[in-house]
Amino acid sequence: MSRCLGTLFLLSVAAASPSLSAQTVSSPVTVTVAGGAAIPMGDLGDLAKTGFTFGGGVEFGASTLPFGLRAELIYSRFGEKSFTFTDPDLGSFTAESRPSNLNVNLNAVIAPTVPAAQIRPYAIAGVGFYNTTIDVSFSGGGTSFSGDESKGSFGLNGGAGVRFQFVGFSSFVEARYHHVFKAIPDAESQTESWKSGGYLPIMFGISIGG
Fold it and tell me: What is the rounded distance in angstroms from the CA atom of residue 187 to the CA atom of residue 42?
């Protein structure tokens, strides 16, 4: 009888070992890479068209917890927009603008605690520092020139996404609005000041690890 109990105990330990080792190997750190479209909103939409965005980051948080953190670096470049106007004496003039920015974000990620679920919605929000650059060119009246102007400022972002879990990695689709405190030169101001602006990236990404 004691020999049978000992055999059953050894078999149960052997059966539990793979799951225990899997839990030990599992890491709360994942690396994310994403890219997609960047849609300018509001006043920023007056200076640019839809462009592209891409970036990467590191996410901290186990799938068994409802809360995590994501640190990321993202570059967004919007489509060029042209403006044409005519002066009765000097003729036609053309101006072109193309904004872009490079930002560093720290975000909170909130998701339901369903570790085994293959489809997992989540919310994300945070703060970041945005370095905005606007490339400008002008031609007309027998002259032409080009240049750029840059400004750094803080901003906020928030949105939601859906994560699709696979073996060893996951993919996600995410839409997040970014509000930059100094995103556009204020043409109505007599000083060289900037006003706020926003844009909406829609991104597809892959997370490895976790």
Answer: 15
Residues 6+ apart with CB under 8 A from 55: 33, 34, 35, 72, 73, 74, 75
Q: Which residues contact 88 (CB under 8 A, 6 or more apart)?
A: none
What pTM was estimated for this model as a whole? 0.79
Strands 169-185, 49-60: pairing kind: unpaired
Q: Would you tell me how many other CB atoms lie within 10 Å of the CB of residue 68?
A: 21
The whole-number pLDDT of residue 168 equals 77
Residue 95: pLDDT above 50?
Answer: yes
pLDDT of residue 48: 93
C-alpha neighbours within 13 Å on the C-beta side of residue 113: 7
Give the burial class of 45: count Cβ atoms within 10 A of its Cβ; 0-12 exposed, 13-18 middle, 19 or more buried: middle
- Looking up tokens 């109505």, which residue turns up? 188
